[in-house]
Amino acid sequence: MKTENKFQQKPSYLFFKRLTDIILSVVALVCFSPVFLAVWFKCQYGDNKGPVFFKQTRIGQYGRPFKIYKFRSMIVDADQVLHANQELYAKYVANNYKLEPEEDPRITRTGRFLRKTSLDEIPQFINIIRGEMSIIGPRPVVAEEVKIYGDRAEKFLSVKPGAMGLWQASGRSNIGYPERCDLELSYVDQASYWFDLKIMFKNIISIFTSEGAY
Asked: Which parts of the chain span the membrane according to its record (predicted)?
């Protein structure tokens, strides 16, 4: 899956956006290093024993797949558990690829806390440094979700996906498809350095209020 970029953005904007991505990501990884240590320790013992990171294939800019990093908030082999339960998987798809925490058998007790506080997203700064993501942009989705954008998928994939986006700033899981498509695509139309800063601060507020987080 590959698309040419017909939605060109100013080189100066892209340069300062990338510079900001690198600087803030390095600072964030240093500041959150105690969280990495705490999660690593938690994953060594008890029922939550297993890998520190959850890695999943997402679709990035120009349709390029990449592995997104998150702190593991689910049991080991969570994807297999979900797909094995056809009824639960159908509900997951119908609910915009989400399940309520209380009915999701995959989420661990530690995982619920990580998700509620958005701490599970911290490893995505690694994706940002690698150039696969940006701090601000449409949220990267799995291949099945790209299909929802239909003939607008090329526009959606013309920009680098972000750890924070307009959809999250507007309510995240409280806003499902197709409204989510409209929000994410409106970012492509309005993208600028100052608009990115506005979205960043709105996301920070959303994180502290836990709006739509699960």
From this structure: 21-41
Closest by CA to 71, choosing from 102, 103, 42, 31, is: 42
Residue 87 lies in a domain: no
Place of tokens 């969280």: 35
d(CA 124, CA 75): 20
Phi-psi region of 69 (alpha: psi -120 to 50; beta: other; left: phi over 0): beta
**Total number of domains in the chain:** 1
Token pair for residue 28?
């964030």
Determine the length of the chain.
214
Detail the DSSP E strand segments found in the chain.
53-59, 65-71, 134-136, 162-164
Q: Which two tokens stand for residue 61?
A: 């800019």
Residue with tokens 């600072």: 27
Range of the domain at 18: 11-73+108-207
pLDDT digits (tens, 9 = 90+) for 91-103: 888 887 778 777 8
Per the domain annotation, does 99 fall within a domain?
Answer: no
Bond from prior residue into 65 cis (ω within 30 degrees of 0) = no
The percent of residues above 70 in pLDDT, for the chain, comes to: 93
Assess if residue 89 is contained within a domain. no
| Distance from chain centroid for Cα 188 | 17
Rounded CA-CA distance 162/133 in Å is 5
State in Å, rounded, how far the first CA of the chain is from the last one: 30
CA distance 156 to 163: 15
> Both tokens of residue 138?
């449409």
On whether residue 214 sits in a domain, the answer given is no
Full-model pTM? 0.85
